[in-house]
Amino acid sequence: MLLMREAFSETGARELAESVTVEAGTAGTIKVLRGQLLRITALEDGAVASLFGFSLAEPNQWLSVHHTRVFSNSYLLGSGMRMVNNRRRPVMVLGKDDVKRHDLLLPGSTTSWLAENGYQGQGCVESVQEQLNALGMSVPKLPDPINLFMHVDLTREGNIVPQPNLTKAGNSLTCRVVSDTQFIVSTCNTGIEGNDKPGAVQLSVAEDLFDFNA
What we know:
Blueprint: E1 20-22, E2 27-32, E3 37-42, E4 49-55, H1 65-72, E5 82-84, E6 90-97, E7 102-103, H2 111-116, H3 124-135, E8 146-148, E9 152-154, E10 160-162, E11 172-177, E12 181-186, E13 201-206
Antiparallel strand pairs: 1-13, 2-12, 3-11, 3-13, 4-8, 4-12, 5-6, 6-11, 7-8, 9-10
């Protein structure tokens, strides 16, 4: 079972982060320890959650969409797939997934790029940098995100074709985290057609799947 804890030796009580609601057009952060589950739930139709993760021990190691693609030899995020950092070490494993459509190709939006394309509001990059500043975390660079719930297709010719976002309120995905990580999620406008109506999401942590329903 992808989300079982047999591989982890921790049995005592551990810190469990409280759930965080990330309102549409903002960013939020949550700390997840090795062996815990991270669940990201769409609270509104069409939500996109641009996901970043930074090692608590080594902030210069981060969740890397580029290395994840190479490591998995895939542009698609599927069940059982390991998402890795810039050292190609696993950060988490995808388990339960209601949507099964996520983008591993597009960068986070910036405020200036959104304005140039007729959108208002803060960009993903700036919102995440604000969260890093608030946490007192300094990183060498801001990586590209994993855009959860974003719907795009990749044609045989190599074209990226945005598709209408089909995510519904209540849809979620759950990952088993395998390295102590500070995650940051932006719900700012992506500026990508069909995925450009920001929606709120919830970040929650549990030790086991049944704890989410407790």
